[in-house]
Amino acid sequence: MTNEETIKALVKQKYGEIALQDRETNSCSCCGSGSCSTEVYNIMSEDYADLEGYNPDADLGLGCGLPTQFAKIKKGDVVIDLGSGAGNDCFVARAETGETGKVIGIDFTPAMIEKARMNAEKRGFNNVEFRQGDIEKMPVSANTADVIVSNCVLNLVPNKKAVFSEIYRVLKDGGHFSISDIVLDGELPQKLQEAAEMYAGCVAGASQKNDYLSYIAQAGFTNITIQKDNPVMLPDDILENYLSKEDIATYRAIPPIVYSITVYAEKQGCGCSSGCC
Asked: The whole model's pTM is what?
C-alpha cells in the first residue's frame, strides 16, 4: 500500500464508524459540542441551526465552517458538495437552489452515502443525489456545476492539487466555489504531524495556508477571496494524548498554527459565444 492509499483507508474506516453514530453520540465521544474533547473530529464545527434547510439528523458535527452561507447559491443552480457526509450541506444548499435546481453530494465512504440517501428519501428530496466517489477524480461530467461547496474535507485528501483541478473541470464557465477547510500557518509539533488520529481529525493533513491558496491559483481560478479566517485552539485534553506537559506549554506560547478558513474563487468564463476558445 502506498502512503496515499494508507491515508485513504484510514479516512474511510474512521468516517465509516462515525456515520453509524448520531450527532449526540458524536458530540459525547468526539470534541466540540459535548463536555469532553478526547477526539479531534468535530472541535471546529459551527452552528447550522439558523440556516434554512438545516436537518439535525444530517448534521454529524464534522465541519469547520458554514460554506453554504457564503456560496451565493441562486434558484435553479446545480450545486455539488464535496465530502457530503450525511447530507447536511446538501440540504441547506437545496433550500437555496429550490425545486428547479439540483444538488449532488459526493462522498468517499459507503456508510455516509447510505445515511445521506436515507435522509433525503425521508424528506422526499427528489432533486438531491448522492454519489460515492473520490473527489480527486469526481464521478461528474465536466462543466456541470454552477457552485461547489465543501466543509472540512480537502484537508483529508492527500492530493489537494488534483482536487482543485477537478473542481475547475466540473464547474461551468463563470461558476464558483466556497470551501471551508483547515490550513496551517507554521509547523505543527512533530508528534502531532505523525498521529493518524490527528490526520483523520483534519489537522495533520492540512496544508500550509500559502500553499493551499497557491493550489487554487495554479488550477486557474480567479477572484480568490478568504471569506472567513479563524484560529483553532486544540484543547489540552487532546494535546495530552500526543505531547508532554512541557511540549504543550511550548505550543501554547507561540501564535496559533491551525486555522479554519472559508475560501471563495471563480472559474472565469471563456468569453466565446459558442464553446471555449
From this structure: 0.84
